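Data availability (excerpt). The following record was deposited with the supplementary files.
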Amino acid sequence: VGLPYHPFARSLAKSLGCAVDSVGLCGHTTAQMVRMLRHPHVVDNCDNVCCGMEYSLEQAQQNDEAYSVLMILAGNNDAALRRQSVEVLRNLRRLHECGYEYNCKTVALALPSSKFEHDDEADEDPRRVVINEQLEEFAAKSGGRTLFIDLDRGLLQCDIDSDDLYCDGRHFTPAGYDMMAQVMQEPLKQWLDLAAPVQT
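Predicted structure:
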């Protein structure tokens, strides 16, 4: 509560030159996301209201506004609650498979480190590491349907102090979310074969 709302979708849309919608479920676990896939009315832990992912995909398709790419960043809340990586990965696979069912390519975004892990590798969460490794393997075996982007490594290598990346140790500042978009930009352009946006 009180954290700045600044989704990476804003910066990403500008850099890619195409529409990027942001649908976030603050505080939700992957199990909750799977359970609420078809719900038309979902309220997250910050009282934001949206729809379940499958419901949104179905509605967009029915309105001739079908999505072509689904980017999934989920699992950090599970890691914080010490959920088993096997359970989290099962849920993440279900989210990606839901995208496939609606003819979407998907992007598996690696779970980013917390500030404590960012500052000291000795504090690295082994559950998060396993999840990221398995997401990369899932994408590699997807037959080109899923792109893995190592958001974690990209943020660790960026030229910005961790105090400027994180606002509370786990959630990101507006500058942190903008940096996320910067890390994603080139891999997405190459994968989707996007031309550079026209500057106006």
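Summary of structural features: The chain has a mean pLDDT of 85.
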